[in-house]
Amino acid sequence: MSAYDLVVIGGGSAGLTAARTAGRFGARVLLVERDRLGGDCLWTGCVPSKALLHVAAEVQAARRAGAYGLAADSGPADLAAVMGHVKGAIAAIEPHDSAEELQPLGVEVAYGPAVFTGPRTLTAGEREVTFRYAVIATGSAPALVPVPGLAEADPLTSDSVWDLTELPGRLVVLGGGPVGCELGQAFARLGSRVTVVEALERLLPREEPRASQVVQERLEAEGVTVVTDYRAEKVADGMVHGAGGPLPYDVLLAVTGRRANTTGLGLEAAGVKVDERGNVRVDGRLRTSNPRVYAAGDVTGRSAFTHLGGTQGASAAADALLGVRRRIDYAAVPWVTFTDPEVARVGLTAETARTRYGSRAQVRTLDHERVDRAVADGRTEGFTTLVLDPRGRIVGATVVAPRAGETIAHLAAAVRLGWTPSQYAKTVHPYPTYADGPWHAALLDVHDRLARHRSVIGGLMALHGRARR
Ligand SMILES: Cc1cc2nc3c(=O)[nH]c(=O)nc-3n(C[C@H](O)[C@H](O)[C@H](O)COP(=O)(O)OP(=O)(O)OC[C@H]3O[C@@H](n4cnc5c(N)ncnc54)[C@H](O)[C@@H]3O)c2cc1C
Ligand SMILES: NC(=O)c1ccc[n+]([C@@H]2O[C@H](COP(=O)([O-])OP(=O)(O)OC[C@H]3O[C@@H](n4cnc5c(N)ncnc54)[C@H](O)[C@@H]3O)[C@@H](O)[C@H]2O)c1
Predict the structure, then answer these.
(1) Is residue 97 lining ligand 1, measured as CB closer than 6 Å?
(2) Measured in angstroms, how far is the CA atom of residue 43 from the centroid of ligand 1?
(3) CB-based burial of residue 468 (10 Å sphere; 0-12 exposed, 13-18 middle, 19+ buried)?
(4) Where does FAD bind (predicted)?
(5) Of 39, 398, 411, 461, which has the most beta carbons under 10 Å away?
(6) What DSSP designation does 274 have?
């Protein structure tokens, strides 16, 4: 039986980062992967989706070229060529996540499913292993909602959509969350007739209502049919059926959420408990109910993003091996939905702030008609919202704009550091960029405060004038 300081189960974003971190500490580390290193992000998530969105954006730009006197091509794209670009991006990134890259860090890789056999033992494929600590980083998988006929219709999911070789004619996307909106827009731009169906009253229901509205208007302007408040009741005869009428499809894509991968892991043998939603239950230090076993990434239900999964993986490894407690400030973790325009957020929405602070919450919104870069690009539909707590600190922000994902990083720092808008505004931002949105939103607050303290400033000016006389 081989013994390790740390055994990491799952070689996705969370597991790879946990293993690399532990390897850098000089620990004896085993990473167990049942399939292929890289996980969801590399093979079926972030990388393929962003590569697809890139091609779709280029196709969209070509379609608009007619407005500037160039011959615009309005036919459908060649999906095989598009997927060639997607696979190229995966192939270029794959080596960074490989066993060869891990080896110099002292991380061993074993292939096969990991199954706990006791609180400090597991099998990794054929091997029996003991560990001082383990990190469960087995991720999540697409979950089908229990709609009669849906499973039988064998819809595509975000796992299998990458195997398409021909562009769907009529594509119905069940689920208007980030995956549904990103993929729905991409396929529409490539030439499919897309219907995005959302059970709740708006797309991207976790975001600011205005962000949902901007995205819906954009999708509709690009030919997508958006159906909200629609509960699918049955799938039969090539149609989704619900109170809103039948929705016929050639290809059905079900992207209605995900479920943690815990089946067959032997969690009971390890004394690891799951919560009522099937996620591995963790405390603030990412320890499970077995203090020798940690969990990180999607499997915890406390992360659905690569950057957060990685951060959790590193924290879990440092906590286990060094006793270093790195509290993750979840309130300051940004995320982005990569539609066009992008929807980027950190922290509270205006509504959650009002629920928490009542009327003492303050909200500053700047329309991007006031952002010169947006005007130059013809992209003034976006906006920036800053949400302030009663002490005037930035506790939330939403940016809707092209490249909002780049803009949100500085706002995440502001939330983490508890900055007020005036502290944020002290950093000079380059002109003309979309970062002007948050900067000017912060300046709005500064100017408002100046206006409210006009008499004090008047007094100061008078004093200064007298001193100079
Ligand atoms: C379409 C799509 C687009 C996305 N886009 C983004 C984005 O733009 N930005 C972003 O931040 N996030 C994005 N995400 C989310 C992101 O992909 C996930 O949050 C992230 O990949 C989760 O990482 P993880 O390490 O927790 O799990 P995973 O990456 O799923 O890795 C888990 C690994 O564990 C292995 N495994 C499972 N069970 C066992 C077992 N018993 N034994 C051994 N190995 C096992 C699996 O084979 C897998 O390799 C997207 C997701 C989807 C579906
Ligand atoms: N850019 C990113 O960081 C990114 C991109 C994609 C996905 N992700 C993450 O991956 C996870 C999964 O994303 P997702 O979009 O699959 O799930 P999700 O849970 O975020 O969204 C699913 C949507 O489907 C809707 N829905 C549920 N049942 C339905 C039904 N019967 N009919 C119609 N609609 C229904 C839900 O109301 C919800 O809006 C999310 O947590 C997301 O944050 C991140």
Answers:
(1) no
(2) 9
(3) exposed
(4) 50, 138-140, 298
(5) 411
(6) B
Pick the ligand that lies closest to the CA of residue 342.
2
- Bridge-based pairing state of the strands 127-136 and 2-9: parallel
**Residue of 40, 93, 253 with the most ligand 1 atoms within 8 Å of its CB, for mutation:** 40
Indicate which ligand has the atom closest to the C-alpha of 241: 2
Q: What is the pLDDT of residues 268-325, one digit of tens each?
A: 999 999 999 999 999 999 999 999 999 999 999 998 999 999 999 999 999 999 999 9
The residue written with tokens 């005036």 in the block is 422
Task: Decide if pLDDT at 107 tops 80.
Answer: yes
Residue 104 Cα to ligand 2 middle (Å): 38
CATH number, span 161-256: 3.50.50.60
Per-residue tokens: 172: 């119905």
In this prediction the pTM is: 0.96
Mutate to test the pocket of ligand 1, among 7, 33, 46 (most ligand atoms within 8 A of CB): 46
User: In this structure, is the dihedral angle defined by the CA atoms of residues 10, 12, 14 and 20, taken in order, positive or negative?
Assistant: positive
Asked, colleague to colleague, whether 4-37+98-142+259-322 and 161-256 share their fold, the answer is yes
**CATH superfamily ID and name for 334-456:** FAD/NAD-linked reductase, C-terminal dimerisation domain (3.30.390.30)
**Is the CB of 43 within 6 Å of ligand 1?**
no
